[in-house]
# Entry
Amino acid sequence: MKLFVYHTPELTPTDHLPECAIAVDVLRATTTIATALHAGAEAVQVFSDIQKLMDVSAQWPQDKRLRFGERGGAKVEGCDLGNSPLSCTPEVVKGKRIFMSTTNGTRALQRVEAAKTVLTGALINRQSVVNYITSHQPESIWIVGSGWEGKFSLEDTVCAGAIAHSLLTEFTLSSPVSEINDEAIAAVALYRQWQEQLVDLLQQASHGKRLLGLNGMEDIEYCAQLDSVYVLPIQKEPGVL
Ligand code: 3SL
# Structure
């Protein structure tokens, strides 16, 4: 297994893709995707462009769709909801297709959508992602953080570290890691240092502070839970999980 962590989509190589890519946006897109699918959403379809989201979703029956739009942490006008995982209760999302566009998370997914297997990971569904990898044993794995507008983010890196830490413990027994980048080693070290205080770390992260300014403490506490849901968001067709 070759394991690489990239802090932002912009830092990934442009001349090849891995066998398996895991897009991560702990605050909050991939946490919301995991929560929505766990609550029974039919699928989540992601867009980087809001107008495209509006046009494509308009072709879907109104009672079977929900539009999730977020920019700068706030709900986009014209959408049904923003990007809070706490909105994704079974009463709201069950049986619905979610059309989603967010500032950074959807861009990370689009960067890797041509990989053979594309998953989304968050702290809440870390174990589901690890179980998939250990049973399928892809030859190369990228864990791609969304960051914030091209910059490093603590929350995505600690999640990458949580996934990598588990893989290094469980995977090496059957298939040794033949290559690992420095970012993956640093992400594991960050996770090992903060694994008991994930809520504190997320509050110190710059996007955590932004969300706190938007009354987002409950969201942060939810997003910081490790292995709290068992769900594997896996891409079925480009942009659809
Ligand atoms: O940047 C993103 O993709 C979002 O997840 C940001 S927010 O947490 O919804 O503000």
Remarks:
- The mean pLDDT is 94.
- The two ends are 25 Å apart (CA to CA).
